[in-house]
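Worked problem 6 (solution included).
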Amino acid sequence: MPAHFSCPQCLLTMPVPICPSCNRFLTEDVVLAESLMKPIKAPERPMQWCTAFGHWGDIFMCVGVMKAMMAATGQEKINILYVGPDLNIVDWLLLQPFTGEVIGIKSDNGDFYKKFWYATSRPDSEPMAWLGMLWEQYRGLPSADAFTQTHINSQWFETRTGLPAQLWHDGIIPQKDATAAGELMQKVLPIKPKTLIHLHPISDWSESVNNHWPHWLAAIEWLIDKTPHTYLLTGLHPIMFLPKSPRLVNLIGKTKSNLEVLTISNFCEGVITTPNNLAHWSVIQRQKCLCVGNLATQFLSSYYRRFLQRGERLTYVNVDCTFSGFQAAACEWLEPKA
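Solution. The predicted structure is:
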């Protein structure tokens, strides 16, 4: 075992493979990571309230855990407490067939949310540890014993819990967002090309831009230069020095919601992206996806990576992949051998 572990996000060094600041595991050794956790058992009786904390990718992971635990208790519906930055997630949750009531508490990525996220994601997290933090924003919360924690934290592992990264499928998009995405697509591509690929390389909610795979611009240039396909580029952060080509349609900053971005992937033959919620959505919708990792998912102790790698149509390339390694993976992904 190494003498120390370093966190690339918090720039801290510690003797155990878990960062005390962001709770991220820092080892490829899942058994070692699990040895730091207490076992979790599926509930023995029906649950009252589940928890879903974070942004879109976090919520997609939470739903997998909810559905697995609902299967164990024989439930068809569950009430959900959502805490996070985007209340559109509440509308999305209410549309899903497994959802009963939803309480939504908006919390942006400020000091409070950082403290709340730490309290809820640490290995020894329990409802009593974080519920009081929410009373100021929402007085009508159920008592702590009404909650079963289903948000993703450091406890969710495969062998000790018996609950592996939980796949689920067939999420539903609200009609208004599907319509808006269709209208945008019609505007920018009135005639759909033969092969349309959704490209979303940068997402900085769970990982800073500097901790993404470093060759994205070269990859975009290579895709435009060496393949005949048309690429729809989405995201929030401008990318400098993009190649100029009618086959690269730049929609960065032009989508009105994340639900529009998710819907755009439905119009495409595949998705090339970083490990963000779009990659998770591609697994949920059984969409073909090439996902290039970032530092947050460099180890298999990342629940998010384990979810992605269970996707039946997803090809995962780790963050330490060379550019030539990406080219080989992309060629195989774009034109698989018979």
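Discussion: Residues 5-34 form one domain.
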